């Protein structure tokens, strides 16, 4: 793993973090993650380490660390990209591998602008950072988006929002039962009850939440098998279709279980899993990672049934303030069950430098904006 140089900022007052002296990178990251301004389970140290170990492949992944004196205040994995969408222009982007569904860096609460000042300064100075910075998967209303925009405005650094979509979010003070009645139509609720009764006629139905770490390997095996039995297996995108993604899943769930951040649910029919759901927690938030169902029982909507269990698990846990669905926009199932939305945004940010590097970066940023603008005008015709 490449560790980028880190410029020091002026020390803050009363900072909750610990100095890095004598601490391993993982320990520094864990301390920072506990004070994160914006939760992101995908960049929490255990999940990030699992991704680096198993999903990095040939990607040139570097870890930016921002310091405030001796204190670590920011962490962001980045990677060099050969293209920007359809444009064949090199750029640097926050690292979002195929199993990462949120891209907010881990920054210390109260030090968001200082962290972003350090991130951008490092990239400005880095000869390995081409073009511009492409930030993906941020919460438009989150601490990182606000700090990034503020720092760019203060520095008169060009920044452009280049995409946005909404996805389902669960955030409510209601009980699970009250939320279900408030957000799901009466006709749909009646149909779900009918399906539950019909499924129960087929055998013994049991719902479980994993609590015993000793059974985690078996649950992981059951999940991988169940997911591969459906359309993802046929399409070659199930976790078990590649050894490295299966290994990542086992490592990430084991680390999260040890840290108390794993929420693993299942529904069994006569002792065999017919629906399973994996969530990762971080701070007051949680992220719904993967769902798998027995598609031969699709007529009973097992995906909806386990989401009902998930609703009870999330809204019944005082330690979880919200859950991000991590779903695609306009998802037909989860959008019909969860009433709240999270706006996910991406930015293109100009990088600076000196001499030829500055000119090249400025030209690349301007060219990308020009092509994008032309494409938008052509689309309007």
Automatic annotation (TrEMBL):
Highest rank taxon of the organism: Bacteria
Keyword Transferase: yes
Region entry Disordered, spans: 1-23
Annotated keywords: Transferase
Name of this protein: GNAT family N-acetyltransferase
Transferase recorded as keyword: yes
GO molecular function: transferase activity
BioF2-like acetyltransferase domain residues: 186-325
Coiled coil residues, start to end: none
Organism field: Sphingobium algorifonticola
